[in-house]
């Protein structure tokens, strides 16, 4: 066999392996996701008072039958049509502002590029809607946790 053809086939084979490996890399979704983005630290001088919030991804997808697009969206906030095995970015990949402006500024709660606002808006908003459907007018009490202490569990000293 000609050396050029052999080199071409070998190169193509390696490219296919790398491509397949890249596809496989997007398939692993953990059952739970801890919202512990390394760069996102509120307290710098004292130990944290609360544990990181944990999302039960598997339970939301399988038990509650929440579609991927209910949480995952594109840059225009349109739901993504994801299937098992699709590669998905973490929230922090797009919601890159990791610190809130000082209290009292108008941008404080409205800027969804702030990671905390994006997660609270998505999670708490959905949970309140579920609770309202279950009969609670304010949406704070019901089957879905909507108050701070339900997701941000205090660390015992």
Q: Write the element-wise H/E pattern from the N-terminal end onward.
A: HEEHHHH
Number of strands: 2
Proportion of beta-strand residues: under 5%
Q: How far apart lie the N and C ends? A: 72 Å
CATH level 1 name of the largest domain: Alpha Beta
What is the mean predicted local confidence, pLDDT? 81
Helical content stands at 25-40%
How many DSSP H or I helices? 5
Explain this structure:
By secondary structure, the protein is mainly alpha-helical. It folds into two domains: 1-30; 31-151, Cytochrome C3 (Alpha-Beta Complex), CATH 3.90.10. The protein contains five helices and two strands. The protein has a two-stranded antiparallel sheet. The longest helix has 23 residues, at 3-25. The chain starts with a helix and ends in a 6-residue tail after the last helix. The mean pLDDT is 81.
Describe the secondary structure blueprint for this structure.
Layout: H1 3-25, E1 33-34, E2 54-55, H2 57-63, H3 91-94, H4 115-133, H5 148-151
Antiparallel strand pairs: 1-2
